[in-house]
Amino acid sequence: MTAHSSPIQVVRSVVELRAVTRGWRQAGDSVAVVPTMGALHDGHLSLVAQARDACDRVIVTLFVNLTQFDRPEDLAKYPRTENRDRAVLEPAGVDLLFMPGVDEVYPPGFATTVSVSGLTSGMCGDFRPGHFDGMATIVAKLFLMTGADRAFFGEKDWQQLQIVRRLAADLNIPIEVIGCPTVREADGLAMSSRNARLSPPDRTAAPALYAALTHAAQRLRGGEDPAPVLEAARAEILAGGFARVEYLDLRHPQTLTPLDRLDGPARLLAAAWLGPVRLIDNVAV
Ligand SMILES: Nc1ncnc2c1ncn2[C@@H]1O[C@H](COP(=O)(O)OP(=O)(O)OP(=O)(O)O)[C@@H](O)[C@H]1O
Ligand SMILES: CC(C)(CO)[C@@H](O)C(=O)[O-]
Ligand code: BAL
To answer: Any idea which positions bind beta-alanine (predicted)?
Structure first.
């Protein structure tokens, strides 16, 4: 698709966003959206690259969505690097950076929540109360605000991706949701904005999560019984220096139904705490 070298347009209001996208549509351009909370890394940039390959116009949204944070300190400490984010997006072929303020997104009197049932039960849904309602509400709003044809999400947030697919289908939002592979550091750690909060020793320990998931997936593919394999993976994560494993689940990739044996495609998903930082990851089995 068309490569754009013109400077990125920063838009903060929905009225202006709609005016710009209306012009694009009149010109027959297809539109991609990449929703983010900023503190951009190469994982985000891979979503942008895939969006640029697929559509004529690319919107990146940057909004630290307060309603999806279940712990006030997590919101307070969430990394914010707006100027750097803007500079990183400039050469990446992004047409528009949508950075609304809180009042633009949640004006006084705001009273609507998008709540997806089923897929939000278990895993992050159990340990982060209200998180997926906040996430589903902002994602539905961003889809409607941008009117994009395609949206790009990372597989790192696997449960989120399945929820987003469901809400787009259930609300008849005409957008194609595209999942993009997890981008990793050289040692296997999934890139994440929260990695910036790891202390140097915790950063050294962090790849143990992906290593344990990878070993477990190999054993499962080799036909071993899931229960002891999952138990060994938990032990490996703790031995690697993590303080606590929040969940380590074998699930159907799309329905997220828990699996106690492997009789088809499956996903192994985990969340674990390293000091004050909670990391998530998942692998195909
Ligand atoms: N390593 C990665 N590879 C591919 N996509 C990613 C990666 N990390 C995040 N994403 C995707 O980028 C989008 C925006 O995510 P977000 O801004 O929350 O970044 P994050 O690094 O996941 O931060 P957090 O620390 O909140 O998990 C989401 O669709 C997310 O799945
Ligand atoms: C999709 C998202 C940008 C909504 O705030 C967020 O959940 C994220 O960064 O994955
Ligand atoms: N990357 C998912 C957004 C969140 O953790 O709140």
So the answer is: 68
Asked if this assembly's ipTM is beyond 0.90, the reply is: yes
Instruction: Kindly tell me the burial class for residue 74, based on how many C-beta atoms sit within 10 Å of its own C-beta (0-12, 13-18, 19 or more).
Output: middle
Q: Report the chain (285 residues): mean pLDDT per 10 consecutive residues.
A: 68 98 98 97 98 98 97 90 94 97 97 98 96 98 98 98 98 98 98 94 98 98 97 98 98 97 96 96 98
Cα(64)–Cα(218) distance, integer angstroms? 37
Question: Is 199 within any annotated ligand binding site?
Answer: no
Count of beta carbons in the 10 Å neighbourhood of residue 71: 12
- The structural domains of the chain, with segments of one domain joined by +, span 9-180, 193-284
155 lines ligand 3 (CB under 6 A): no
CATH number of 193-284: 3.30.1300.10
Asked if 38 contacts 177 with a C-beta cutoff of 8 angstroms, the reply is: no
